[in-house]
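INSTRUCTION: Work out how this chain folds

Fields: amino acid sequence; protein backbone structure tokens

Chain under study, with its fold:
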Amino acid sequence: MADVIKDNPYGGSVAENVIYEITKGVGFQWGPYVNTLINVDGKAFTLPSASHAANPLVKNIPNPVASDYDGGPEVSFGGRTLSVVELMYKNTIKTEQWLNYFPAFQPTGNSIDLKANPKVQKAFVNLAMDSIKAQVNTLHSEGEKGAVGDKAHLDFYDGFSTLIHADAKAKLVGTPEALTSDNILKKFDELKHSIPARLRHDSNLVSFCSIKAFDLYSEARAKTQSYVATPDLKPTTTLVQSFGTGIKIVPMHGLADDFVFATIASTKPSSNLTQGVWMENDINNFKIFKLNEGEQHYRALMRLSMGVQYKAGEDIVYLNSEAK
């Protein structure tokens, strides 16, 4: 016989708080580097992109005719599909432990009852959000290849590195090989020189890498008496360019050790990276309940949909230890 909800002490919408934290990067590392679309439902959504094959500016032609356009530049349209994946947060809260630790979580609360004390409701939502942050970072980074716990239920989620590696338009730089202390500076320089010239002056040009790659790069630069700070003092460092505009290097949780990619990344619509988030605005967003009468613990459930995508593979260059 299937379990049914016998006691539902709290059910409410937390969509606004959840989406705010994901969008603003409150513990969600990708937040400051992706344009967020917040009402993307289960339908596929196209992220459009456009490019020019040549230089469109020419000397003025007072009365242009059709032949003046022959052989000239054309606008090429493209785009990639953003799809969100339905996800469910599930956890168990043992009643006895909750009673014992209640003061630690809510020292100013007057009641442990989930219905009577709004602060208790907020505490449970905060616990849920804190528990999924590292997992969401990994899903965005690698998706199904990441160490995301119960992987069998998430093997349909594609992260940025999975999408990039499968895209023929994204450029794999140099010979695929593992990153080491001996080759890290050379590999990052190869990456820099492979970035399309039209992107090099953009202040939102960012290179994302694993914690391992970031440490290797920072330590190698430090040995050459570079200006780069050590990783524990500075969460990001800079890949210097000859014309003075640095390319920010950001270590990202969940990226494979030898995977590094560079592209335009910000919260603005011009960002090449996008995340879609959706939660139904009803009482089914977050629930705390008991499945059976007499059960001595509560179950927590939250439903949301998420997904990531980028607009243009030709605006991405990357390093990897695996060939395409």
Notes: Confidence is low (pLDDT under 50) at residues 1-6, 227-235. Residues 118-141 form the longest helix (24 residues).
